[in-house]
Amino acid sequence: MKAADKSYDPIHAHKVAFIGLGTMGGPMAVHLLRAGHQVTVYNRTDAKARAWVAEHGGEHALTPADAARDAEIVFTCVGNDDDLREVLVGAQGALNTLPKGGIVVDHTTTSAEVAREMSHQALERGCSFVDAPVSGGNLGAINGVLTVMCGGAAYAFDRVKPVIMAYSRAVTLLGDSGAGQLAKMVNQICVGGVLQSLAEALAFGQKAGLDMQQVIEVISQGAASSWQMVNRGPTMIKDEFDFGFAVDWMRKDLGLVLDEARRHGARLPVTALIDQFYADVQAAGGGRLDTSSLIKRLR
Predict the structure, then answer these.
(1) Which of 178, 172, 194 lies closest to 250, judged by CA?
(2) Which residues carry out catalysis?
(3) Phi and psi at residue 222, in whole multiples of 5°?
């Protein structure tokens, strides 16, 4: 899908690098280019970066280090902790070449621990690091209306916030390094709980013989309404589960949540159960289905 039309606030154009052109990163980088920034992209699969440049413009680099060499801001949106370490401090990592004073903005959902580690690595090199996981899914990235939860130093956040707004509607600093990732964990706890409740409600209504499309239209006007109900309820009824954020990634996120909960002595019994429900979906071959596919195990 192509990034939607959006108006951008006029700001100073920056030289930026974007590392990771997946479901989220690709459209986010498009918005940066459309907002007037000079964008160099890197993707582990080079053909994907070349195709992005052929379609949208900008430049592509063969390594993260090459992408960051002349950048003011490096954006990352990769898979997990180890991927982030590799693209930032690996042999061809971006922090090896990012000029002093540069800032890394990481949109990957990672552990809070690796966010603090990368912040330390950046500071040792005279740079800054902002952990900035997002909520809003693939459609939010395409339409440029993501919610971004940030952790890091206020001076670095203040510099990057106007740039991040190219693909966001809300960008908030929540504390020191790692705070953004902890907030994303809170978000995922809520999302999992809402989706499981919605799955149970829809499966119950269908077994009871109700017209669930009509029911959704009614109850979405009341206290039961949620973004998931309005946007995923109708597709769950139709057995459609191809909407961006995959079960495999949700399980990765919930694993981070449960690990963090153990460190803090927090009890998450419902979240742990939902994580196992997602494991059931994976075991049935649904790892690449989107997270609303929880309903499949109830049918």
Answers:
(1) 194
(2) 184
(3) -120, -155
CA 228 to chain centre: 17
d(CA 133, CA 204): 34
The residues facing 128 across adjacent strands are 103
Q: Which residue has the tokens 């013989």?
A: 209
Residues 6+ apart with CB under 8 A from 22: 77, 78
CA 139/CA 27 separation, integer angstroms: 9
Rounded alpha-carbon distances, angstroms, from residue 62 to 47, 49, 66, 105, 257: 10, 9, 7, 20, 34
Give CA–CA dist 208/131, Å, rounded.
46
* Model pLDDT for residues 57-109, shown as the tens digit of each residue: 999 999 999 999 999 999 999 999 999 999 999 999 999 999 999 999 999 99
CA 165 to chain centre: 15
